[in-house]
Amino acid sequence: MENKYEIDFDDFLKNFKKQISNKGYKNSIQKDYILKILFFMDEHLTAEQINAKVKMEYNVDIGIATVYRTMKFFEELNLVELLDIGDGVKRYELSIALHHDHLVCTSCGKIVEFTDDFIEEQQIKVAKKHNFNLKDHIMTIYGLCEDCQ
User: Fold this and answer.
1) Where are any strands of DSSP class E within 1-149?
2) For the chain, what are the domain ranges?
3) CATH number, domain 101-148, options 3.40.50.12780, 2.60.40.150, 3.30.1490.190, 3.90.1150.10
4) pTM given for the model
5) What is the pLDDT of residues 23-73, one digit of tens each?
6) Domain over 9-94 is classified CATH 1.10.10.10
């Protein structure tokens, strides 16, 4: 997927810092590192993966408990979305990503993001047919990826 966001990282970070300051929260360099990892990764990351990538990318000893607390904080701010592919593991992505849906391999756990105008139109038609005022949707398709077939 190309260009997942309509904002660059510096503007995103500035807006984030302003938002949490306005709510009376403190920012930390650890939050900045975690946001940067989430912003620039194409994967849906677990807290453990985020922790490892912060340590590797920034040579910072950040505790896993800090990552979990930060992810809970980001959830409360609606800054991240959770993706659970049915294995009980929380994976995170920033909620500022442009709308997309997911293909999930039930064998290896591979996640592919996609957009499809036809599917989007069909979902609108289905909602109208059933007199629903469509606000949002999440679509996840489960199957086997090419490598696992």
Assistant:
1) 80-83, 91-94, 101-105, 111-114, 140-143
2) 9-94, 101-148
3) 3.30.1490.190
4) 0.77
5) 899 889 999 999 999 999 888 999 999 999 999 999 998 999 999 999 999
6) yes
